[in-house]
């Protein structure tokens, strides 16, 4: 399949996670813990089926690891509870900002050298996140915002641990299989407040099986043809797609604060990535 088509489908899938979760929690009777459990279980089943077809017949060891599965679980759980109160576009921007800032910060802590322009880009991205969270009429609910930042940090940890961990589909399948029981334990602990509906479960299954499970497989296929920096840069589109989707399908409004914060965060990250590309090319 054409690389442009694969990449576009993957970005739509990633943005779709935000839209499906927000729609389910706001317009159906499902609760956040149940949504997460159904999402991870359905994602684990789809990825297991795909991974089984790719592997040789006979017994095989479950790929992935428990620490990565814990990070995946923390991301998915915090993501769902954050979307109880956050608009789709705001949540996607907070998630993206937390992921990128965490990964860039990790690189700095490991001795990666930033040029002057990269420092400016990093400061712009952090400043955009701070600006979005400043108290005011247009600021997002603090609890939801903090939960989404936790989700972003957890996803950054998961992504960093996934580098060089083996076949990505097999590893992701193993991590989903390990994280699903963790989510079910949370649902069992919150059984007294459990709520669900057929529509809510359907959205959760779509999020787990399609936009998570199949979405990751499509993304890994696209990554084989994309340069690392191109792969990172194209993800700048995800918060924008989610914001437009929120306006189109959920009747959400894009505030001036969100627009300014988006320009600062996405522009700052883009500067860092583009300068990194130029440095790699010059070498």
Automatic annotation (TrEMBL):
SUPFAM superfamilies: Multidrug resistance efflux transporter EmrE
Keywords per UniProt: Membrane, Transmembrane, Transmembrane helix
Topology in the lipid bilayer: Multi-pass membrane protein
Localisation: Membrane
Signal peptide: none
Pfam families registered for this protein in UniProt: EamA (PF00892)
InterPro entries in alphabetical order: AA-Vitamin_Transporters (IPR050638), EamA_dom (IPR000620), EmrE-like (IPR037185)
Domain annotation EamA: ranges: 144-273
Major localization class: membrane
Transmembrane region(s): 32-51, 63-84, 90-108, 120-138, 144-161, 173-194, 200-219, 231-250, 256-275
Full protein name: DMT family transporter
Gene source species: Variovorax ureilyticus
